[in-house]
Design a protein that fits this description.
This protein is an alpha+beta fold and 411 residues long. It contains 12 helices and 18 strands. It has helices at 50-67, 103-113, 162-173, 185-193, 196-201, 233-244, 248-258, 284-304, 308-311, 331-339, 364-376, 387-401, and strands at residues 2-10, 14-23, 26-37, 41-42, 45-46, 73-78, 84-93, 122-134, 137-139, 150-161, 178-184, 203-208, 213-219, 222-229, 271-272, 282-283, 318-322, 343-345. The strands form 5 sheets. A 5-stranded mixed sheet has the order 3-2-1-6-11, sandwiched between helices. A hairpin with a 2-residue loop joins strand 4 (41-42) and strand 5. It is globular, with a radius of gyration of 22 Å. The two termini are 30 Å apart.
């Protein structure tokens, strides 16, 4: 089955609209993209309705021009430090006389795990089962069809601020585009860059964007942890600007052009600048020192923010870095030196031939939103009031799709 899908990645530094032709659950052709600077967004939070709306509108129009297709609806990512997660447990008694676990029992256990009290300004957006126990014994995979008396499920709960959801949806719909679904951005990125073997063995994904670093941890094919840290490439650029006494935009250009987490050896230049005249020339060592220090801080923060009680005895097999800041030269080597685990930079996989513009860590979320939409999304758009319910519907479909990662959503 073929269909046209659109994603909108609203970030701190850029807004990226991507229009593709999907064949079954894969991207068959990239029809058009619209990449414009973002305004009115700080650390993935909408600060002003008008500026982000205008940026989204420009991005959509550019994608429409390049694709020749009118964008009426899109899958949209959401992240930010308002995202929070914790783990909860639910239990149920198997009711059949032969004590055979049915889908009804499983749903009841998951429903029990969702019974959490949240502040009025927060909403549960994901309830992701990560481990089952039957009569206090761990279950590998799906417990349906096994025999037992008591079924327990440990669930990863993700919540978001209601006002942040409303503001983001308002910006997108202010351009005349309906929101098909809101998708947690690190989950979308994981669809684009992680391999099944990594998810099974244990992997930490760090999506280092301009304003935030979004974290997801997978183990045994299931998500075990998620978080959003309010640090990213923006803070690195700010430190360069302040430390070297140069304008922010110049600092950004110097970072992109010359910055490295592993500066060159004997051939490294003494002074680097943006023009032959040497305007805003800075010492290469000073630039790379700031870049390296900030990159090291972000990498360490990723692991320091893992729950200590659960992760002290667990060693991930791989750290995968993605997002725009992951393109920083030398960041893989720096990560390996700090953590003593394999580190790689993740770019979107499964792209069709010729999709060069998306073959970049900066577009992992945009591509992941499309893959998520094709695999678990619905073909019709939502109203602002229905966005949360669609979170639940899409994840319920995910539940029945995977044998190990089972998801059930409450309404």
């Amino acid at each position: 089955m073929e269909r046209i899908l659109t994603s909108i990645d609203v970030g701190t530094s850029k807004v990226c609209t991507t229009v593709v032709r999907m064949k079954n659950k894969d991207i068959a052709q990239v029809l058009g993209t619209g990449i414009v600077p973002s305004h009115g967004i700080h650390k993935a939070i909408v600060l002003d309705i008008s500026e982000p709306t205008a940026a989204i509108r420009d991005s959509v129009k550019e994608a429409e021009r390049s694709s020749g297709i009118e964008v009426k609806s899109a899958y949209v990512g959401i992240t930010g430090e308002h995202i929070a997660s914790f783990n909860n447990q639910g239990t149920t008694t198997v009711t059949r006389r032969d004590h055979l676990v049915t889908r009804k029992d499983l749903d009841q256990a998951i429903k029990s795990s969702r019974q959490v009290t949240l502040p009025q300004d927060r909403k549960l957006i994901h309830a992701i089962p990560r481990q089952y126990r039957l009569d206090n014994e761990p279950v590998i995979g799906d417990p349906v069809g096994l025999h037992g008396h008591n079924l327990a499920v440990e669930t990863h709960i993700v919540t978001a601020g209601i006002t942040f959801i409303q503001n983001l949806v308002k910006c997108v719909q202010g351009t005349g585009v309906n929101v098909m679904d809101l998708i947690l951005e690190p989950l979308a990125a994981s669809e684009a860059v992680l391999e099944a073997g990594e998810k099974e063995a244990g992997v930490v994904l760090a999506d280092i964007g301009a304003g935030t670093t979004d974290i997801t941890v997978f183990k045994e094919q299931a998500i075990w942890h998620s978080d959003a840290l309010p640090v990213g490439g923006y803070q690195m650029t700010r430190d360069i600007a302040m430390g070297l006494g140069i304008p922010f935009n110049v600092a950004e250009e110097l970072k992109v052009k010359y910055g490295s987490a592993r500066p060159k050896g004997k051939d490294m230049p003494e002074i680097v600048s943006l023009d032959p005249g040497g305007k805003y020339g800075v010492h290469y060592k000073d630039l790379c020192y700031i870049v390296t220090s900030r990159a090291e801080e972000v990498i360490r923060m990723v692991f320091l923010n893992l729950p200590r009680a659960e992760w002290e005895t667990w060693e991930p097999t791989t750290l995968v870095l993605t997002g725009g800041t992951a393109k920083l030269p030398g960041i893989e080597a720096l990560g390996r030196e700090i953590l003593r685990v394999p580190v790689r930079v993740g770019k979107p996989k499964g792209l069709p031939e010729g999709a060069v513009i998306l073959d970049d860590p900066a577009y992992a979320v945009g591509v992941g939103l499309l893959l998520w939409g094709a695999r678990y999304g619905q073909p019709s758009a939502t109203t602002p009031e229905g966005v949360i319910r669609r979170f639940f519907d899409q994840l319920r479909r995910w539940w029945f799709t995977f044998p190990k990662i089972r998801i059930s959503i409450g309404k």
